[in-house]
Amino acid sequence: MSLGGRMLVASSVLAVVVAGAFAALVFAVSTLREANEREARSKDVTEATLQLEKLVVDVETGLRGFTLTGNPRFLQPYTAAVAAWPERQAVFLERASIDSDQLRRGTQITKLIARYVEDYAEPVIDLVAESSDAARSAGVTIEGKQQTDAIRGRFTRFLAEENKLARRAAATASSRSDRAL
Predict the structure, then answer these.
(1) What pLDDT digit, counting tens, does each position of 67-107 carry?
(2) Containing domain of residue 29, as a range?
(3) What is the Cα–Cα distance from 46 to 48, expressed in whole angstroms?
(4) Dist CA 101 CA 104 (whole Å)
(5) Which CATH number fits the domain that encloses residue 22?
(6) Number of folded domains that form the chain
(7) DSSP label of 137
(8) Measured CA distances, 2 to 10, 11, 13, 16, 65 (Å)
(9) In angstroms, how far is CA 156 from the centroid of its own chain?
(10) Are 148 and 116 within 8 A, CB to CB?
(11) By C-alpha distance, which of 168, 180, 153, 179 is closest to 35?
(12) pLDDT tens, 136-161?
């Protein structure tokens, strides 16, 4: 084979190696970008979750203050939380919809919150007007605590699962990136 032929073969081999290295680099960058996007989505889900959880705390705080004092001014956190609920719920479910299992968990959480407000908080507010002593009874207080504890437990599990999803996505991206390089 002539020198020109060998140079052509060597140049072709070099071009294939460079193209392969470039393709691997593009794949690694793409994989890391996907991991960053998943991490950003996970952060958005966590933020929406914490905002929704804060509404539950505000409902509970306002209800407790009103129940103890009978003063409607203490219902302000409750009223603000109930007003913010539809929008925050929609954002939470939209962000949770990235993963079907998380959407299912999120839907269960929102149903528990709605039940807490409709079946517990609103009747307690009405009960305060009739009998503040009855509204402050141990049975009523325990029922409210059980419901909010159940909601908090669901939030804790939801956030733990979201963290697992983010870690799994990061590990997958890292593994793909390592293999590409």
Answers:
(1) 999 999 999 999 999 999 999 999 999 999 989 999 999 99
(2) 3-180
(3) 5
(4) 5
(5) 1.20.120.1730
(6) 1
(7) S
(8) 12, 14, 17, 21, 94
(9) 10
(10) yes
(11) 168
(12) 888 888 999 999 999 999 999 999 99
